[in-house]
Amino acid sequence: MAAAPSSLGAQFHEELTCSICLELFTRPKVLPCQHTFCQDCLQDHAGRGGAFQCPNCRQEGRLPPQGVAGLPDNHLVTSLCERLQNQATLSVETREQPQSGNRCCFHLSEVLRLYCNRCNVPVCNECLDEMHNDHNTITLKKAARERKAPVQELINEGRDILEVYCGLLKSLREKEKTLDEEKEDTDNSIIQACNHHLFQAEEKYLKDKEAVQEERDSFLADVDELSAACDRAEQELQHGTFVRQFPTVVSGEEKMYPQDVTMDGKGNLWMVGYTKASEFAVQYNKQGRVLRKFDVQKTGWYRGVAVDTRRNHILITKTTGDTGNQRGKIQVFRPDGTLVRTVGQQQGMEYPRYITVDGEGNILVSDFKSHCVFVYNKEGQFLFQFEGLLDYPKGICTDRAGNVIVADTRNSRVEMFDKTARFLKHITTDMKRPQAVAMATHGQLVVTDTKTDVIQIIQSCMIYNSQC
């Protein structure tokens, strides 16, 4: 059934209404996003120029140099608005027009009363006598009844087509709304994803920066340690009693830069160090003659070394990976360089710095990066780890009772724990940067301080609060 004219007019009126002022469009202008608004409404919304957002879809655009007036006109909308206004005016005029008889245009004093079927025109009495004599005529009312049905059928068909068009316009309007909503959702998703990636990048940057700063502090400490060693050697040459020295040669004239040293059960020295091309473990006798050596994988990180005198095994720390992503472990070798086992891969060790073996064969390792000590039994099985508020621990050794002594470098103190990791005491807190610790033959504790270039020997009675 065809819609009533007023209903169709109302639907078209909705399509031709500005979403800002809610009135029929006046001088409609089209934005780049294809939404249409009144020129005056856009002028109030956009201001004088520059970037602005569409009131409907929020898409950003820029005005042409002429401002809002320079935007394209929507001629189709203009035409439809004019037609709708004209129909409204015509309807009013038709209602206000007085109902009176129709006058003949040829005989102004005569009223049209008949319809000539032969000529298909309305006629008056005068026309009938002059031009339509003997023509078949009927009354106007009857002629109107006969022709009303086909005309009304055409009108209804036109109304039906208009109703279909109105449905299509409504469907298009809903589809446009859906597209705007999908675009807004997509924009929000992109913004959220972008913010998430920015947050992750910032978090990674801060984490990596912290790792670099920690590694820089470590290297600065090593530089300071090396510098202090050089200064200490100069002072010993001037003031100390020189006993013996020998160059750490590995072959021919090639010298090795030593990183750590320990003594085996026969009084020979085991050293770990590096040349420009390789890294080694070398055994020297007391006169500095090379007894044996074997290569270790070049990593570029400092190593520690210890000897298990019961089994004559050489234990060497190994650190791999990049700055901020180090991974550490302990390698156990025979004196000929044969790898016996690897210890500590499963506990998350990062930068094992110093190592020692206690009287029971247990392995103790100070992890410079993880700020803790790892403890393994003689078979390399993990026992426990402890921190004790350690901050960059380095040197580590044990006394005859199995107590653990650690150089707590960053805290500027030397600490003692029992064999179960229970804290016992601060042995000394008046050092600047304790580096390495070792127990001497008669129970004294020897501590190196790389900040003050001093070797401090602490008597046994001072350690255990006994009578000196």
List keywords for this structure.
468 residues, Neuraminidase, four-stranded antiparallel sheet, 6 helices, 32% helix, disordered N terminus
In brief, what are we looking at here?
This protein is α+β, with helices and mostly antiparallel strands. It has 6 helices and 28 strands.
What does this protein structure show overall?
The protein is an alpha+beta fold. The chain has a domain at 235-464: Neuraminidase, CATH 2.120.10.30. The protein is 32% helix and 29% strand. The chain contains six helices and 28 strands. A hairpin with a 5-residue loop joins strand 20 (372-376) and strand 21 (382-386). The longest helix has 100 residues, at 140-239. The chain is rod-shaped. The protein starts with a helix and ends with a helix. It comes from Branchiostoma floridae (Florida lancelet). Residues 99-140 form the B box-type domain. InterPro entries: 6-blade_b-propeller_TolB-like, NHL_repeat, TRIM-NHL_E3_ligases, Znf-RING_euk, Znf_B-box, Znf_RING, Znf_RING/FYVE/PHD, Znf_RING_CS. Belongs to the TRIM/RBCC family. Keywords: Coiled coil, Metal-binding, Phosphoprotein, Repeat, Zinc, Zinc-finger.
Number of helices: 6
Order of the strands making up the biggest sheet: 10-11-12-13
> What oligomeric state is this?
single chain
- CATH homologous superfamily identity of the domain at 235-464: TolB, C-terminal domain
Rg over alpha carbons: 51 Å
Low-confidence parts lasting 5 or more residues at pLDDT below 50?
1-6, 96-100
Overall structural class, as computed from helix and strand content, comes to: alpha+beta
Number of strands: 28
| Averaged pLDDT | 84
What is the global morphology? Answer: rod-shaped
Q: Helical percent range?
A: 25-40%
For the biggest sheet, the summary is: 4 strands, antiparallel
Instruction: Just name the CATH architecture of the domain at 235-464.
Output: 6 Propeller
CATH topology of the domain at 235-464: Neuraminidase
GO molecular function, one term: ubiquitin protein ligase activity
NHL repeats: 337-379, 380-420
Organism: Branchiostoma floridae (Florida lancelet)
EC number: 2.3.2.27
